[in-house]
Design brief:
Elements: H1 2-7, E1 10-12, E2 18-20, H2 23-42, H3 44-54, H4 59-72, E3 76-77, E4 93-98, E5 102-108, E6 118-124, E7 129-140, E8 143-151, E9 164-173, E10 179-185, E11 217-220, H5 221-228, H6 232-245, H7 254-257, H8 260-270, E12 277-286, E13 291-293, E14 299-302, H9 305-321, E15 333-339, H10 356-365, H11 373-378, H12 383-386, H13 398-405, E16 407-411, E17 414-415, E18 437-440, H14 451-463, E19 483-486, H15 498-506, E20 509-514, E21 516-518, E22 525-528, H16 529-549
Region (Disordered): 372-391
Cofactor: Zn(2+)
EC number: 3.4.11.21
């Protein structure tokens, strides 16, 4: 810096930055400044994604975050228990939830008719985690500990020595006796799973017992006694008397099944008294926020990228496809479904293997067409006329007709090539981050992808809006987003998704895709910042163009 001052003069610019008067240096810095501004513009989508991640520590919170975005975009909530015939109208936008952890949203085309297609994107809201046991109160060697249960196939060794806390939902007794569902999130670190020091001969590779050595530490028994001002004997006596004097209850109170101060923290977050906490479903989450990183801001570092990465792209893709006014000739339904419990097999009332999506499609497939003459005229190219059908009032096969002409994109994160384990990847199929959404293929149908789906998605990608980030030499500056292909090695296991399950259940044509990431199922994962926009733009294009493209991909 001193040597630089000795040979160059400086001028103060309005940006309050020092720029060398040398024309070469000034030009170089100006170029770098413009590149920096361009990169900031290309990170807007990733920054919004990071906000979504930080607001969604559990599946319940993820659905709540999606609801807020959908409502802001003009979607109206409906309920499964209500009749829809008088509520749903062509041109309308609606969403519903089940268990507050699964959400389905859809927009009905103005020219919709019974039996027409539905363009669908499906994802899942859950991620591997540790969940608090129904009776979690545990102490050992002077520590207060919390019993947890493994949910899904997590890389549990990555949960050691992390600053952990709790999030999920609590069932609360309301003032009028009603049992209410409330979201809670303890924002400070209160739990930690300690590693065994290397001096004790800890195992390499790292091995541990998930039942006995995965107990998070919540505090010290002595510190809790100091807080309450009672001795251990006094505390035990008071608990015994309280249990003796209590009325009959089928289960012990939550303050008896869990550490009382833990219940106190939870009740504070839920806005109720400790005794009003009836039960809860709480999971552990890493309090380290999601953030953008890398030398050139090319990565997103976060928990739960699998599968909040594709949940975000799914929700935003639908919303973005409706930003501009949709023409009166739109004869399809655009639908997204984000399910819970994919990580444990989807066999639940709110999982992808439940009846929720078939039930919604059945109700939508029979939805009456718009009654206005303008809608009738604009739908001359609808599926009844294009495919030679007549008798618009015959709804007996509308459900089957809709399934036969619909398409599902199963969106679940994919594996990027790991440079430290490159031999684990098939040599010709090595997805790179920030190089586009990945099409996943498996000959044994662990993924539901087939050639017609690849052809259709390629056309959607070709018609997609250009991403803000354009690498040197890119051919997509005028439009289009890149795609990649993934096949696992023959000597390697292959995961699966909701794709094969849904395609078998519905008989709907399906393709499996996902944005590439590293360290899937770790407590801390990595994906590309620019792939977020790639995914959103791809799904936006799918929703916008499927009605036209479906008629061009003819396979019976």
């Amino acid at each position: 810096m001193i040597a630089l001052r000795s040979c160059l003069t400086f001028r103060i610019f309005p940006e309050s930055r020092f720029i060398a008067s040398s024309p070469t240096i000034y030009t170089s810095l100006r170029f770098r400044h413009s590149r920096t501004m361009a990169s900031k513009a290309s990170l807007k989508r990733a920054e919004d994604f990071v906000d979504f991640l930080n607001a969604s520590p559990s599946a319940f919170h993820a659905v709540h975050s999606a609801k807020l975005r959908l409502e802001k975009a003009g979607f109206t909530q409906i309920k499964e228990r209500d009749a829809w015939s008088s509520t749903l109208q062509p041109g309308g936008k609606y969403y519903l939830t089940r268990n507050a952890s699964t959400i389905i949203a859809f927009a009905i085309g103005a020219a919709w008719k019974p039996g027409n297609p539905i363009a669908m994107v499906g994802a899942h809201t859950d991620s591997p985690c540790l969940r608090v046991k129904p009776i979690s109160k545990h102490t050992g060697d002077g520590y207060m500990q919390v019993g947890v249960e493994c949910y899904g196939g997590g890389m549990w060794h990555t949960w050691f020595d992390r600053d952990l806390s709790l999030a999920g939902r609590v069932m609360v007794k309301g003032a009028d006796g009603a049992m209410e569902h409330r979201l809670v999130r303890v924002n400070k670190p209160i739990l930690r799973i300690p590693n065994l020091a290397v001096h004790f001969g800890s195992s390499v590779p790292f091995e541990f017992n998930k039942e006995t050595q995965l107990y998070p530490i919540a505090g010290l028994v002595s510190a809790e006694l100091n807080r309450t001002g009672k001795t251990a004997e006094e505390t035990k006596k008071a608990e015994g008397e309280a249990e003796k004097d209590a009325d009959f209850a089928p289960l012990k109170a939550t303050s008896q099944r869990h550490h009382p101060y833990l219940i106190s923290l939870i009740s504070k977050e839920a806005g109720c008294k400790p005794e009003e906490v009836l039960d809860f479903e709480l999971l552990l989450y890493d309090t380290q926020p999601s953030r953008i990183g890398g030398l050139n801001d090319e990565f997103v570092y976060s928990a739960r990228l699998d599968n909040l990465g594709m949940t975000y792209c799914t929700v935003e893709g639908l919303i973005q496809s409706l930003r501009a006014p949709v023409g009166g000739d739109d004869s399809i339904i655009r639908l997204i479904a984000c399910f819970d419990h994919e990580e444990i097999g989807s066999t639940s009332a709110q999982g992808a293997d439940s009846n929720i999506l078939p039930a919604v499609i059945r109700r939508l497939s029979c939805l009456p067409a718009a009654s206005s003459s303008s809608a009738s005229e604009s739908s001359e190219g609808s599926y009844e006329k294009v495919h030679g059908h007549s008798g618009a009032d015959d709804l007996s096969t509308a459900f089957e007709q809709t399934l036969a002409t619909s398409f599902l994109i199963s969106a679940d994160m994919a594996h990027a090539v790991n440079p430290n384990y490159s031999a684990k990847h098939e040599p010709q199929h090595r997805p790179e981050m920030n190089a586009g959404t990945v099409i996943k293929v498996n000959a044994n149908v662990r993924y539901a992808t087939s050639s017609p789906g690849i052809v259709l998605l390629q056309e959607c990608a070709r018609r997609a809006k250009a991403a803000s980030f354009q690498p040197p030499g890119a051919k997509t500056s005028a439009g289009g987003v890149p795609l990649q292909l993934l096949v696992m090695r023959n000597d390697s296991p292959c995961g699966s998704t909701i794709g094969p399950m849904m395609s078998a259940k519905l008989g709907v044509r399906t393709i499996d895709v996902g944005n590439p990431q590293l360290a899937m199922h770790s407590i801390r994962e990595t994906c590309g910042t620019h792939d977020v926009e790639h995914g959103v733009n791809l799904f936006e294009s799918f929703f916008e163009h499927y009605g036209e493209l479906e008629k061009k991909v003819l396979v019976d």
